[in-house]
Amino acid sequence: SSSSMTTQTLQPVLVLLSYGLHQAEKGFNALPGSAVLLRYIRESHRNDPGRTLLEVLLALFAVWTVFQSRRRAAREARNFVKLTEQEVDDLVDEWTPEPLVPELSQAALTAWSKTPIIVGPASSRPRVTNALIDPSLALTPSNPTLDPSVLANAKTKEVINLASFNFTLAPSSSSSSSSSGSSSVSSASSAVLITSTGASSNSTSSPKGTAEQPLPGTETAINTLRKYGLGSCGPPGFYGTIDVHLELEKNIASFLGTESAIIYSQGFSTASSVIPAFCKRGDVIVADRGVNFVIQKGLQLSRSTIRWYDHNSLRGPSSSSSPASPSSLVGVLEQLEKEFKRKKTPLTRRFIVTEGLFADSGSLTDLPVLLSIAKRFKYRIILDESFSIGTLGRTGRGLTELYNVPAEEVDMIIGSLANTMSSAGGFCAGSKVMCEHQRINSTSFVFSAALPALLATAASETISGFTRHPEMFTALQENVRAVRAILAGMDTLEIVSHSVSPLVHLAIKAPSSATLSPETRSNNRVPVLVLGRAMRIALFPETLPCMMFRRRKGCYKRW
Questions:
Q1: What digits encode the pLDDT tens for the residues 199-243?
Q2: What pLDDT digit, counting tens, does each position of 102-128 carry?
């Protein structure tokens, strides 16, 4: 009787629940996609009941987390101390901020005071100042900063720019020495000096007593700036390409003797974009161990299979008794051929990547030998001529002109517009198909803003100067020979770069015992100056080569 009474009491509640569930099911079935969800739940529960339990627990945990966060926010709001406006103002007035950096000591201020400061334009012979030249610029704890307005009247000193890439200068009517071409270091130092930024600078640095002369192409660059403005405001493939860009590409292709060319707005991103545009995962790249950092980043971005050969070692032991990882280019290629045959690897894209004039060593690639090896093993060549174009060859056309090799035989020639062309950015020259492929597949060309019109005009003017005044390259080679003749007589220096390289790399070594004094030999104290590894020291009065000091292993600082 008691159970019947309980059933009668709960009957309305059960009916209400049944009606609610029926209405809920009816409303859920009316939703789009509900049938698919129900079928998924039924099949999931039938195949794996434990998964249903796990999903229910996860749903409950999500609901609990939402409510818990709301409760936590409400609890923190109750514990928050509310301040009046007056109390907030008092706390702000009493607060003393901590300095971002600690105060400099007297030793640090003295070191900063001795740091050279360039006053005026950065040319091949800039004027610098510091506390040693002008004692009024010394920093003290009471005066830890330097007012820039003081530099206008500060004492300065003319120095030689040791970080310039001004390899060449067109003859100028304002200097007889530059018009006739300097043949030695002393004659070159008295000539008109081109500034380190080429056509984008304001003027040349002239000898004392003469007026500053505008650089070649200055008026053209100014007119371009007034016509197009400063920036390009868009990538080349969208609306950043204008007529001066197309004219520069045409000039580069005509100057080098290739079918086509493409320009980039940044020199660093040229090689790091060109290589990944053609080399993908699964492709094979064989590269010189001495390539520069930009090429190394491009090889990493390509995600290709990278094999290295010893620096500038094109031919070497490649017999059957050679080790599994041969060091020369021929040995690496033959080892790869054996691996391809053994693994039956499908045909992939294969490239040889190297530099024409190595920036880190000053050595040259034997281009005819490299081309013969590439044709023998059926590899394409990507050649970086960032330093060889504008410095090597009778008319400055680079390694191809130096070795009398047609530029069409090199698949891709990469170069920089910033090193020798008085501008910024880079380029890639080759066939038309290769250049058009980069316009839609090269990341830097597609996503980066185009080269400013001003810099494109500056590069075109520099190329025109190369064509009009080829004698500047003869003067450069004469200076290279003069510098090498002077440095060859120094017992503590060894020239490691190529004889025609405008980048003169010097390795500091211990002198021979024959040139040491008896006191030095008896004390076993060898005077060896050790500079930082690969520290670049460029000495450029007009058309001087760039000198780079390197340190050999085993050399120590001993006095």
A1: 334 344 444 444 455 566 778 888 999 999 988 888 888 888 999
A2: 888 889 999 989 999 999 877 778 899
By mean pLDDT, which of 52-66, 155-169, 296-310, 539-553 is the weakest? 539-553
**Residue 499: strand, helix, or coil:** coil
Q: Which residues of 252-271 are buried (b: 16+ CB within 10 A; e: fewer)?
A: bbebbebebbbbbbbbbbbb
Bigger pLDDT: 80 or 341? 341
CA angle 44, 49, 50 (to 5 degrees): 115
Locate 28 and state its tokens: 């859920």
Query: What is the C-alpha separation between 59 and 355, in angstroms, rounded?
Result: 61
From first CA to last CA, the distance across the chain in angstroms is 115
Q: Judge contact between 248 and 423, C-beta under 8 A.
A: no
Q: What DSSP state is assigned to residue 524? A: T
| Structure tokens given for 501 | 């390289």
Residue 277's nearest CA partner among 446, 448, 437, 432 is: 437
Report the pLDDT value the prediction gives residue 171, as an integer from 0 to 100: 55
Do residues 438 and 452 touch, judged by C-beta distance below 8 A?
Answer: no
The Cα–Cα gap between 299 and 283 comes to 11
DSSP assignment string, 274-311: HHHHH--TT-EEEEETT--HHHHHHHHHHTPEEEEE-T
Element (H, E) at 128: strand 127-129
To the nearest 10°, report the CA torsion of 24, 27, 33, 37: 10
Contact partners, residue 404, CB within 8 Å, separation at least 6: none
- Structure tokens given for 449: 């803003």
User: Which one, of 376, 282, 372, 288, lies nearest residue 334 by Cα?
Assistant: 376
The number of helices, as runs of H, and strands, as runs of E, in the chain is 19, 14
Q: How confident is the model at residue 521 (pLDDT cuts 50, 70, 90)?
A: very low
The letter for the amino acid at 108 is A
| Ramachandran bin of 524, using left for φ above 0, alpha for ψ from -120 to 50, beta for the remaining angles | left
Q: What is the pLDDT of residue 124?
A: 73
Distance CA 425, CA 415 (A): 9
Q: What is the number of other CB atoms lying within 10 angstroms of the CB of residue 430?
A: 28
Which residues lie below 8 Å from residue 527, measured CB to CB, with a gap of 6+?
A: 492, 511, 520, 558, 559
Q: What is the pLDDT of residue 320?
A: 44
pLDDT above 50: residue 272: yes
- Residue 244 CA to residue 227 CA, distance in Å, equals 11
**Which residues make Cβ contacts (< 8 Å) with residue 510, sequence separation at least 6?**
492, 526, 528, 555
Phi, psi of 262 (to 5 degrees): -140, 140
